[in-house]
Amino acid sequence: MDKRDGIFSPAGVVVDLGAAPGGWSQLALKRVGKAGAVIAIDCLEMEPISGVEFIQDDFTEQSGLQAVEQALAGREVDVVLSDMAPNLSGHAAIDQPAAIYLAELAADFARQRLSKTGCFLVKMFQGEGFDQFRAQLLRDFNKVITRKPEASRSASRECYLLAREPVL
Ligand SMILES: C[S@@+](CC[C@H](N)C(=O)[O-])C[C@H]1O[C@@H](n2cnc3c(N)ncnc32)[C@H](O)[C@@H]1O
């Protein structure tokens, strides 16, 4: 997706929400280089990745948000990634609203902290609440595209929404 859509740029500031075990953080770090910054948060532990500032906390809690804000120290964000996924119960009626809630929190953060040219990438599962979430992104960002990367099984409901340029 980065090759196709050009998500990262050298020296960019990236916030990775739901980062463990660190796959996306590692890629982001490679793309932004030493002049950039990657701030990552997860409730779970993550093996240290040199160059990634990792916060172990819950992003839905005030403490988690504050820790990310503190790490940013007033810098604007170029990319917000969210791969946060709730603990799955196996019941769509519980799991889907929980996933949408995490995506909404990430979108709120992105709207508030992204630069004018920034982008927000969120992994989603198509289902109840997906269309409303996408419709809200279309109101809050100038460009929104839906992607289903080759790596994600074609039958799966998993997809990615990429929103660019928050409407100020
Ligand atoms: C699919 S995994 C992320 C994989 C990661 N993007 C990677 O490339 O290695 C989802 C992660 O979201 C985290 N997560 C779920 N809810 C969270 C929350 N409220 N705050 C922080 N992390 C959360 C989980 O702990 C889990 O590690």
CATH superfamily: Vaccinia Virus protein VP39
What would you call the shape? globular
Bound molecules: S-adenosylmethionine
Architecture (CATH level 2) name: 3-Layer(aba) Sandwich
Beta-strand percent range: 25-35%
Which stretches are low in confidence, meaning pLDDT under 50 for 5 or more residues running? none
Count of beta strands: 7
Specify the helix fraction band: 25-40%
**The CATH topology, please?**
Rossmann fold
The domain tally reads 1
Describe the protein's architecture and organization.
Its EC number is 2.1.1.166. This is Ribosomal RNA large subunit methyltransferase E. The active site is at residue 123. Residues 1-164 form the Ribosomal RNA methyltransferase FtsJ domain. It is an enzyme of class 2 (transferase). The protein has five helices and seven strands. The mean pLDDT is 94. It has a single domain, classed as Vaccinia Virus protein VP39 (Rossmann fold). It has a seven-stranded mixed β-sheet with strand order 3-2-1-4-5-7-6, with helices on both faces. The protein is globular. The two termini are 26 Å apart. The longest helix has 22 residues, at 92-113. Helix 4 runs parallel beside helix 5. Helix content is 35%, strand content 30%. The chain is of the alpha/beta class and 168 residues long. S-adenosylmethionine is lined by residues 18-24, 41-44, 58-60, 64, 83-86, 102. S-adenosylmethionine binds at residues 18-24, 41-44, 58-60, 64, 83-86, 102.
